[in-house]
């Protein structure tokens, strides 16, 4: 079995070119790596598609997205990393009669809609001062999502964006009945049990009513297919050690048995780690974040500079013998804890 790897900060994708069924591929990945590949955002998607360009055959390669026999449909936001909790459905709306994509009215209430209808839509851009873009051109929901991801960041998603004053002004200046937003409902799950909502369907190979319950990656995106033999992507990732140890004991354990305590340098890595901490048996988990009392600053044991930060409260005091731990519930913020406390 030949393979090659794509390396990231926290995880590594491995491509295996021996064709297997989806279940056989998953079993191999679990036995030799972590699981079939989980794709969390457009960065992952672009890395895999770029790697697949010259190596993956036209038949595609398995990833870990599947539709289990016992289905459980859920609403998700298109923009990765947002929790779906509070809602603003209009009267009589929400997941009825195969209406599995979300839109918004002028009064800001939500509408469930058939995904294949052509409608205008609103994109969100995180990199510009003008964050919201009303696209008058009509597209299906999947085409709108792809357009927003190619030209901006994503379809407008999440309660914070939908309540933004700038968005309200954008909507007030337009004439429409309702427009697509980044809200969708599906019954697909990642094989590793994670709750990541990222999907990038090939709109030419997606029919929500067929019996194709497994997902392959092609150059056009994620495609549903029947369970035949294909090459596949595995991944290796951060590992949760469900033993309570002091920070120093945890550091030595990770360096002896694995690589090191985890380093988190951006929001994408934060999401990976917080997803893993949901299974912890302690209220916090240790990270590779350490305070040097002599020099008076925080650093990662991997020698990465602490640029990205997710501290819970600026009022936490910096003291000697302190290290960084992530909260395993709530918003998964970072807390400054004494080294001798014992966590996973």
TrEMBL record:
Highest taxon listed in the record's lineage: Eukaryota
Keywords noted in UniProt: Disulfide bond
Zinc recorded as keyword: no
Short name of any one Pfam family annotated for the protein: Lectin_C
Domain C-type lectin: 13-124, 132-235, 234-334
Gene3D superfamilies, per database record: Mannose-Binding Protein A, subunit A (3.10.100.10)
Keyword Isomerase assigned: no
Protein name: C-type lectin domain-containing protein
Classification of source organism: Eukaryota, Metazoa, Chordata, Craniata, Vertebrata
């Amino acid at each position: 079995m030949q393979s090659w790897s794509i390396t990231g900060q926290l995880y590594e994708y491995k491509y295996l070119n021996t064709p297997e069924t989806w279940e056989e591929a998953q079993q191999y990945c679990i036995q030799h790596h972590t699981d079939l590949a989980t794709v969390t955002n457009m960065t992952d998607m672009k890395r895999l598609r770029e790697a697949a360009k010259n190596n993956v055959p036209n038949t595609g390669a398995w990833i870990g997205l599947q539709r289990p026999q016992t289905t459980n449909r859920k609403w998700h936001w298109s923009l990765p990393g947002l929790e779906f909790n509070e809602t603003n459905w209009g009267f009589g709306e929400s997941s009825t009669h195969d209406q599995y994509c979300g839109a918004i009215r002028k009064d800001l209430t939500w509408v469930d809609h058939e995904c294949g209808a052509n409608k205008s839509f609103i994109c969100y851009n995180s990199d510009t001062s003008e964050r919201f873009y009303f696209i008058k051109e009509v597209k299906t929901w999947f085409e709108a999502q792809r357009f927003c991801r190619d030209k901006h960041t994503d379809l407008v998603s999440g309660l914070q964006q939908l309540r933004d004053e700038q968005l309200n002004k954008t909507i007030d200046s337009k004439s429409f009945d309702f427009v697509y937003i980044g809200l969708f409902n599906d019954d697909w799950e990642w094989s590793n049990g994670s709750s990541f909502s990222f999907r990038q369907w090939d709109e030419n190979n997606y029919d929500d009513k067929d019996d194709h319950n497994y997902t392959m990656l092609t150059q056009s995106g994620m495609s549903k297919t029947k369970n035949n033999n294909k090459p596949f992507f595995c991944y290796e990732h951060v590992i949760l050690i469900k033993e309570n140890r002091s920070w120093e004991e945890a550091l030595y354990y990770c360096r002896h048995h694995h690589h090191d305590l985890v380093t988190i340098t951006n929001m994408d890595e934060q999401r990976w780690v917080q997803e893993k901490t949901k299974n912890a048996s302690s209220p916090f988990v240790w990270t590779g974040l350490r305070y040097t009392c002599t020099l008076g600053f925080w650093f990662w044991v991997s020698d990465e500079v602490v640029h990205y930060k997710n501290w819970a409260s600026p009022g936490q005091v910096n003291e000697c013998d302190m290290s960084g731990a992530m909260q395993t519930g709530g918003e998964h913020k970072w807390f400054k804890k004494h080294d001798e406390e014992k966590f996973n």
